[in-house]
Amino acid sequence: MKTEVLAFFDRVRPAVDDSLEGLLPSESTPPSQIHRAMRYSVFAGGKRLRPALCVAGFGIFHSDPAPILPVASAIEMVHTYSLIHDDLPAMDDDDLRRGKPSCHKQFGEATAILAGDALLTLAFETMSNCAGFNPAALLRASAELARSLGTRNGMIAGQVLDLEAEGQTLRQAQVEAIHAAKTGALLSTSVWLGAYLGGANESDARNILAYGRKIGLAFQIVDDVLDETEGRDRERRKATYPSVFGLDPSRRMVRQLTEEACQLVQPLGASSSTLIEIAAFLETRCL
Amino acid sequence: MKTEVLAFFDRVRPAVDDSLEGLLPSESTPPSQIHRAMRYSVFAGGKRLRPALCVAGFGIFHSDPAPILPVASAIEMVHTYSLIHDDLPAMDDDDLRRGKPSCHKQFGEATAILAGDALLTLAFETMSNCAGFNPAALLRASAELARSLGTRNGMIAGQVLDLEAEGQTLRQAQVEAIHAAKTGALLSTSVWLGAYLGGANESDARNILAYGRKIGLAFQIVDDVLDETEGRDRERRKATYPSVFGLDPSRRMVRQLTEEACQLVQPLGASSSTLIEIAAFLETRCL
What pLDDT does A196 receive? Predict the structure, then answer.
């Protein structure tokens, strides 16, 4: 099972990278500095988890992923924008990202702010230019992507709540709300976008979105557990599961969320196997 | 003529403000800090020139502006996002905006970055949720808005070029390219969006876009002239017309651009009178 999901990631990653390669202006396109910065961060070795979830959602209904690749690429662009802006000195002030200098360390703060802005902008241009989907469906997809990034339970809400939580003692509901907004909203919307544009009916799409929320939360708890057990840059994290609930209860939550997520998509039959394998794979990271 | 255009602005401004009022989350919506910051900058006393151009473009074809107001509001959101990010310490480092503390001075840098991000995001959500337009047309409108903000001759390109130009001696073509990208792209796209979604045929829409480019450039030269003659914060401006061409030649360029702009829309007949009045009004600012 782990081999299969790794093979799936190994197929999706180069396909998404090719698509991103075509969508991002080349480094020589003027003004070249901003395009260098955008490409530096987009091609910094990301795992492409969110695009893979989008492709897997689409894959329930279609064997050829080609039509959804621009959408998967737009998702990776907005994910990269969020990392660039999160790393800024005024935000989390991270000098390193995936072992390399963060965007503002490499290109300066002004360029990093603009590179994030540009990736967010290009993502919406890409969504609007997607060929092959019903225009009304594409508009709804674009609106949902924007919502998942916004201030009402979206990614920006999560970032604001996380910054506000610094130094405070939080209750479970608060930690969960921060995680759901900061990581869960885009993650669940990624798989939903693939399924919805693939033609899922409302009921299936709703279950797939719920699956995404469960694994999104599980993913974040796993990240917290890894921060704790591997001694990663913990001092900057503000609201973590292990610090509030302890390590073992956190691991149990991951197991339960993963089970619930799989149960939500099992009724879809064989075509949902990739989603189940991804959920199981994400769980094993912290076992 | 000046009275008429002032009356037009006086009608559009409250209509756009009402629309923005309904689109922006209230200050009490959590997380309230980010919504306070967004509203602080959006309702800081802007003249709503870009929304007015959008409404005027739509007004060539329809007497009721109601359907275009969400689009006009999205335009004002992206304009405000650009001001917030331009004012940041890493960019132009402006403490004041329209006589009040700039967003980062009032709310801190992290919130200002996120408020800009949130306004850009909400603008695209708003575009995608516009009711009453053909979905395919709305997708194209959204793509063109994104393009006008992007790195290929859009607003971000202009900002990058402007930052790079600091301390350099520029040729006319370079100054013009910076202005066309930094101010002209969104200004011309604003009037184009109104006309295109109003139902303009391709040829009329092209002329209206060209009109927008001319008055966009004229608008920027007027701004440069006012900076020079009124001794406004000139030291921060990098590439200005008067510094390259002198004051009187700059004024002559404004006059010529305005004439050319008016000639482009005159064939549209009586319905284009508002566009002609706006062009003439913008010109008078520097006479």
Answer: 98
Q: How far is CA A81 from the centre of its chain?
A: 11
CA–CA distances in Å: residue A93 to residues A41, A85, A237: 16, 10, 12
Q: Nearest CA to B268 among B221, B207, B227, B215?
A: B207
Of A278, A194, A272, A219, nearest to A5 by C-alpha is A278
Q: What is the mean pLDDT of chain B?
A: 93
Interface test with A, best of B86, B160, B189, B196 (most A CBs within 10 A): B160
- Report CA B176 to chain centroid distance, whole Å: 17
Contact B34 A157 (CB under 8 A): yes
On whether the CB atoms of residues A77 and A116 are closer than 8 A, the answer is no
Beta bridge partners of B101: B96
3-state SS class at B48? coil
ipTM: 0.95
User: Has residue B93 got a pLDDT over 90?
Assistant: yes
Flag whether pLDDT at A236 surpasses 80.
no
Tell me the mean pLDDT in the region B140-150: 98
Total residues belonging to chain A: 287
In angstroms, the CA A208 to CA A118 distance is: 30
Number of cross-chain residue pairs from A and B with Cβ atoms under 8 Å apart: 145
Buried (b) or exposed (e) across A11-44, using 16+ Cβ within 10 A? ebbebbbebbeebbbeeeebbebbbbbbbbbbeb
- Domains of chain B in start order, with CATH, are 2-284 (1.10.600.10)
For residues A197 and A138, the answer to whether their CB atoms sit within 8 Å is yes
Report the residue of B80, B107, B125, B163 to disrupt the A interface, i.e. the one with the largest count of A CBs within 10 Å. Answer: B125
Radius of gyration of chain A from Cα atoms?
18
Residue A181: DSSP 8-state = I
The angle subtended at Cα B115 by Cα B154 and Cα B20, nearest 5°, is 80
Are the C-beta atoms of residues A197 and A143 closer than 8 Å to each other? no
Put simply, whether A109 touches B (Cβ < 8 Å) is yes
Q: Report how far apart, in Å, the C-alpha atoms of A19 and of each of A15, A75, A251 are.
A: 6, 12, 36
**Is the bond preceding B242 in cis, omega lying within 30 degrees of 0?**
no
Does A136 contact B135 at a Cβ distance shorter than 8 Å? yes
State how far Cα B107 lies from the chain centre: 24
Long-range contacts of B108-111 (CB under 8 A, 24+ apart): B108/A90, B109/A90, B110/A90, B110/A91, B110/A163, B111/A160, B111/B33, B111/B34, B111/B37
Tokens of A261: 């997520």
Which chain B residues contact residue A90 at CB under 8 A? Answer: 108-110, 113
- Dihedral of the CA atoms B17, B266, B180, B125 (nearest 10)? 40
pLDDT tens column, A136-178:
999 999 999 999 999 999 999 999 998 888 778 888 888 889 9
**End-to-end CA, chain A:** 16
Alpha-carbon gap, residue A120 to A194, rounded angstroms: 19
